[in-house]
Specification:
Layout (H helix, E strand, L loop, with lengths): L11 H13 L17 H8 L19 H13 L1 E6 L5 H9 L4 E8 L3 E7 L2 H9 L18 E3 L22 H10 L3 H12 L3 H18 L7 E5 L13 E6 L1 H9 L1 E2 L2 E2 L10 H19 L3 E7 L6 E6 L4 E6 L3 H16 L1 H16 L13 H13 L9 H6 L8 E2 L2 E2 L18 H13 L6 E2 L8 E2 L24 H24 L10 H6 L4 H7 L7 H16 L17
Parallel strand pairs: 1-4, 6-11
Antiparallel strand pairs: 1-3, 2-3, 5-6, 7-8, 9-10, 10-11, 12-13, 14-15
Helix pairs in contact: 3-8, 6-7, 6-19, 7-12, 12-13, 15-16
Bound molecules: guanosine-5'-triphosphate and magnesium ion.
Magnesium ion (MG) binds next to loops.
Amino acid sequence: MCRFLTMAVPGVGLLTRLHLYAQRRSRVQRPVLRLLSCPGTVAEDLRRDEQPSGSVETGFEDKIPKKRFSEMQNERREQAQRTVLIHCPEKISEKKFLKYLSQHGPINNHFFYESFGLYAVVEFCQKESVRSLQNETHAPSKGMEVAIPFRSRFFNLKLKNQTSERSCVQMSNQLPPSSKKLFEVLCDAESVDDQLNALLKEFQLTEENTKLRYLTCSLIEDIAAAYFPDCVVRPFGSSVNTFGKLGCDLDMFLDLNETRNLSTNKTSGNFLMEFQVKNVPSERIATQKILSVIGECLDNFSPGCVGVQKILNARCPLVRFSHQASGFQCDLTTNNRIALTSSELLYIYGALDSRVRALVFTVRYWARAHSLTSSIPGAWITNFSLTMMVIFFLQTRSPPILPTLDCLQTLADAEDKCIIEGNNCTFVRDLNRIKPSENTETLELLLKEFFEYFGNFAFNKNSINIRQGREQNKPDSSPLYIQNPFETSLNISKNVSQSQLQKFVDLAQESAWILQQEDLGGPSMSGNQPWGLVALLLPSGANRKSLGKKKSRKPASEKVKVLLESIKSNRTENFTNTNGKRNVSTQT
Ligand code: GTP
Ligand code: MG
């Protein structure tokens, strides 16, 4: 029976949960000030300062009614349509800049960031302001090369006279922290729970980065709209499923549903009017043709889109490119609506309990640190599979922390009914209808149990399945079998080799062992030795040695230096700005 079935009485379960968390946390929590503010303003600074050091503002705080995925996407999309991207001169006065732009209408929000130059993201209150700005904008004066006259929402601001003013704008950070900064933060934490929350806080997408992602989709939508005026370009994957880290790729879905529906709905009396269209033999060929044309457009006309690659023979055809101004590596697809639904499901799981995201971020980071995941396609485990493993593990706790997909299906109403390509994708979309878990286990315990669980999992005979939340017999001999939640006959980790799986199991066992040793002593007993999460991130084998050694008396900065040296010599690239990329050929 599904324990999450009972309708949540808004507030009551949540209050109980808040109380339990408060008991667990050693630090006093202050209320988070919510101010409608521009990043870089005093109000924004105040809001940041008010953030209690042990807690993480996730955008999913318990007291706030949780938004449906579709509501959130629509709101963000509408915001993005009122937004422009401006490449600015290095020396710019923020005040004068805003005054100049305000001629076109009131500005709702803005921020600056650096990415091979200074950029401003400016959100007007009304769409008309964007049009007004476009109407007043000049085509660049001719130099040696000829400009293609394309009017986008990506501008260049030039100064007529060089100014002697110093630039005094506050930058919004779009990059993940350096390994040094992360280790300092982790060493400063007071408990393993604090470390996990700190890692989440450092890596999660910021409000500004999320805005930039939606804006980038909106700019690509403008290009695609030249051919398909009713199309929508929707972000999916980790940019929106609450598990994205700064620097992750931007997965985009070109949604042509509106265009398709328009051609079937218009009837009047005995007449039925259809568009004259060209036909092709299969959906796949249609997808390839559409993406091929959009890829050409991006390559030829879209400012800032570089390195456009059309990867049309992959199982899921896509166009890959870099959006230079935002720094995002983008993957544009058009026929994988199920991936959009998977993102919605993960969004729900991420929003249900604050421990989920902290655990997923930690496991993903741990896997990257040990080269279990990679940016190169191959036999590695993907971030998506790791997320499924954490969700599955949390479904197996007693009481469960997350409901099974079957349970979410029983909570669905008529509005939630959804069949995609014959697959049942029905589940409850309203987060407030899911009863919060009564499980109060700490993150530290969950992390240790996660490693123990998968360090001893019978991968040779059992599969992982978040639909039912329990182990099942494997239907084939793939080393790792994680059932695709919607296309249930498919394995999302079909690409994983036996040796990669064994590496995962060995590291999980070692990590469980390290955390068990901590249990015996605790961080306070660890002296100057790396403890908790830091110990887990050290190269395999280093811990057994270091835990066996006599404790040294080095200052904190020295400890961080030693750790970094030890890690650098093993695998430097894992701790820099890495993006886990999808294995194009094996996606199932
Ligand atoms: P990052 O590594 O942070 O980019 O995580 P991600 O979740 O965005 O993964 P990725 O970019 O590889 O894929 C984007 C989305 O495509 C995922 O969130 C899933 O919804 C879907 N996806 C990725 N890999 C698979 C797969 O192997 N099978 C299926 N069915 N869907 C996948
Ligand atoms: Mg992605």
